[in-house]
Amino acid sequence: MTDPGTGPARPPRRRARSCGRPLTRRRVLPVTGSWSGRVARPATLLAVLLTVTVGVGGCRDAPGAPVQIRIATGSPTAVYHAFGESLAAILNRELPGVRASVVVTAASAENVRLVGSGQAELGFTQADVLPTDPSAEPHVAAIARVYDDQLHLVASGAGPVHTVADLLGRRVSVGAAGSGTEITVNRLLDVAGLGGDDQVRRYRLGLDESVAALRSGRIDAFFFSGGLPVRAIADLAEGSPTRIVDLGAWTEPLRERYGEVYVSRDIPRSVYGVDPVTTVADPNFLIVGANLPESLVRDVTRLLMERRSELAAAHPAAGRMSPRSAIATSPLPLHPGAAAWYRAAKP
């Protein structure tokens, strides 16, 4: 049926789309001449190729999958986790196309393994966990030295453990399997002459399990290496009589046998409300997969340094970073992306 004066009704014109976008109309020139051997003339073939190229080019504008950054941390009540949660929030907010998340782990040794094998992109580790052979091909690199871990030997305030020698025959948590704490403690017990399996009854417990076991009397003491303050230890000291054992005498023996990575640091009364002590400290690094793109690592380094006050609000240890101290990552080299940012910032 037709409408008088208008002619036959036309069907609605359908709008062609490519990758969600309207195609630009093109004027197609008529093909002249004949086909020879069913092969198009060069001019015709060029027109077809141009049409296909424009169509494919439109598809390339579609956004890709987000860049995944998994941050290997540690116990949910320890410094690595608090630091990592805050860093992940900053990366998600300020780097478009990045999706950062935190992975709970046994800490340093496991973190190095995860980052080195590509199962995490970033991670925290103690310096003494890293290999010292400079000829080995590095699978991880450093972004920054972030703060120093301090080794805690925690015992009941009413218990018998006052010195390292008092651990002989006692039930002691030496840290979770795969943690930096376990590595440092095994070295400490060796230099203290307590390295034999029959000399200390060792339990491989994480921080939260260690606190619970000490409270219930299932162990006599536990070790934990972390930045000040360690929240779980602060909660323990607030709720029950607690002693932190002085370890200052063991810094030099550790340095003589295992290298100069170890230093002495104080834990003042203000941290946990217990008697002040001197202990063994170990630098902490934020590490990254050696093959990550330089531009991405440079952005992570920039935000790590520029958002220090925000990171410090998550945990005070993060506030001790500075560009000048961050570059001291021996024996681990800085990632080229991190090194580029520090050169530009001139720490």
Automatic annotation (TrEMBL):
Biased composition (Basic residues): 11-21
Pfam families assigned to the protein according to its UniProt record, in alphabetical order: NMT1_3
Annotated region described as Disordered, given as residue ranges: 1-21
InterPro entries: TRAP_TAXI
Signal peptide range in chain numbering: none
PANTHER family the record matches: SLL1037 PROTEIN
Protein name in the entry: TAXI family TRAP transporter solute-binding subunit
Native species: Micromonospora costi
